[in-house]
Amino acid sequence: MTAGPGTEEAQPVTSALQSAPMPRKVTAKKLIVTPIVIVLALIGTYVWISNVSLDPIEKNSLSGALVRQALWQHIRLTAYSTFFVLVIAIPLGIALTRGGVRKASPVATAIANLGQSIPSIGLLALLTFWLGIGPRTALVGMVAYAVLPVLSNTMSGLRGIDPQLVDAARGIGMSGFGVLTKVELPLAVPLILAGVRNALVLNVGTGTLAGFVSGGGLGTLITNGIVTQRTRVLIVGSVLAVALALFVDWLASLAELQLTPRGLEES
Amino acid sequence: MPEGDAVTGATIELDELTKRYGHSAQPAVDGVSMEIAAGETVILVGPSGCGKSTCLRMINRLIEPTSGRILINGEDVTGIDPVKLRRRIGYAIQSSGLFPHMTVAENIAQVPKMLGWSKSTVRDRVEQMLDLVGLDPREFHGRYPRQLSGGQQQRVGVARALAADPPVLLMDEPFGAVDPITRDHLQDELIRLQHELHKTIVFVTHDFDEAIKLGDRIAVLREQSHIAQFDTPEAILTNPADDFVSGFVGAGAALKRLNLTRVRDVGVVDVPTAAMDDPRETVVDRLREGTSNELLLLDRRGRPYKWLRTGDLALAKGSLARAGTPVTGHVSRDATLRDALEAVLTDSAGRVPVTGRRGEYVGVVDMETLMNSVHELLEADRMAAIEHRHDLEEMRAHHTQEQLEAGFGEGGR
């Protein structure tokens, strides 16, 4: 009764630091090193290819138009497959953590696991029997392959939320939908985004296999290189695929930084 | 918005509220009936697992009762949309339950926003609520929960629960996860808030001392939420209904009773006083006139300054400035008798000045006054309890007679 009201506030809160917005956790490695490595690798390859004499087959395979087309196809494949992965995996992950559907979650996880444990090239080969060859088959294979990380991260993100918070949200009068959109999903964002990033990188990788089923993309360059025994073609295709994977990962990490709700950082 | 002393709370009536999980034979909560007046603070207290939380969570239907009814302000809310119901009831839980991805302001604004208040009203309300719970709006507005101490988080939790000015506030061990000193502050804060707001508060705790401190009435619950005793803290302390209640009250009921009465409610004695600026002769005269051999010198603002005994002036060779012993401790009129007792026990001469709001002298408490007050209090409690018991017995007798008569009436037909 006699103690002043200030005692409690005297707890170790470094208020000077905290009244200013927290600096975001951006490591220099993420922001600068990755793009530098990508650019150096691309320039190095370009300079090297420009300075060696290429035989007609190589010249034909490495023509600007063809390489650009392969790259563009690859990007499109990645973008489309990631889009479908998000549209399938996130709602599915949400549904599998709600009410009665929760019981089905082991089955769903098992199926998704199956998709990933089959070797991707095997999966693509099997799909050609069903869907024939072409970009569509590649797309289906890529989606089947990348659903798992997003699905499981969405589910564990939603499951990992402190039940007290959900209780508080319901207790102050949020509807089930309100609890999901205002509390659960924002809190699960970091994990979901990590899953998406994982899927993106996986998709760039699996995308190279599209070449085997005439799905286009950088895989075409690699396959051509192998078939025609032209190592340089093979190397250009591989370097481009690696650079694209790194670049996509870099973009996704930026998005992760941007989209993670403030207040969750460093927690 | 609450103004003055108007009661803004609502009555709550629980009618045979029961919760049974699955097909288990034992219900978790078995037929709780309780009437809570508007503006009353009722504490549900009991050992862990007695279903007190379940009981509380049935009031806003976070847990749907298996049977029974809940009436708020006479309206049966057992069947209405639970989401709408909860927006009308404040809810605060242990470890605050603040949303970590929202700022303090966003957390507090949740319910008003859901109720469709305009943006500017919500903004004003948030500032007002922060002020109410003693946090500076400018400083705390934009902070995230993890940047707050446990006590501050709990304050924000209470602010969020009160944001839409609900008549009823449910609190589920809200101060369970903070350290004892902070808890004490938060309890004082809640008492102050309730003094201003007059909400109907239902508060769950397992800490009986907390129950005594905060409750207008306390319901001591045993397993399956059977009410062992539902009465004022005074009555429970002096007259526990059975061994279970007295076991829960624990040792030192008389000491705990001291926490319930404040110094301003008991008599203080007067001692002769003099102002520091009074001439020496006046002081000496007053000392001589007085019944005791002591005099309290007050400073220019009327605050106790030092004690002066008959011999002191001679010892200090007549200098008023050097004579006497400075006053070391004092208690405010709002202090509990327990605080006063503590102060009296530590004072070398066994008496302590009582001060008013601005620290000015009001009177003195000593061992004798305290003892007398405590005896009177306990006696009064005992009488009240006997009367209460008598009333109950009479009512029961009346009831039995009525039943008997009714029985005979039917038999005669």
UniProtKB/TrEMBL annotation, chain B:
Pfam families documented for this protein: ABC_tran, CBS
Ubl conjugation found in the keyword field: no
Keyword ATP-binding recorded: yes
Domain spans labelled CBS: 320-380
Alphabetic keyword roster: ATP-binding, CBS domain, Nucleotide-binding, Repeat, Transport
Top-level division of the source organism's lineage: Bacteria
GO-annotated molecular function: ATP binding
Signal peptide (residue range): none
Domain ABC transporter: start-end pairs: 12-249
PROSITE patterns noted in UniProt: ABC_TRANSPORTER_1, ABC_TRANSPORTER_2, CBS
InterPro entries to which the protein is assigned, alphabetical: AAA+_ATPase, ABC_transporter-like_ATP-bd, ABC_transporter-like_CS, CBS_dom, CBS_dom_sf, Gly-betaine_transp_ATP-bd, P-loop_NTPase
SUPFAM superfamilies documented for this protein: CBS-domain pair (SSF54631), P-loop containing nucleoside triphosphate hydrolases (SSF52540)
Similarity-based family: Belongs to the ABC transporter superfamily.
Name by which UniProt lists this protein: Betaine/proline/choline family ABC transporter ATP-binding protein
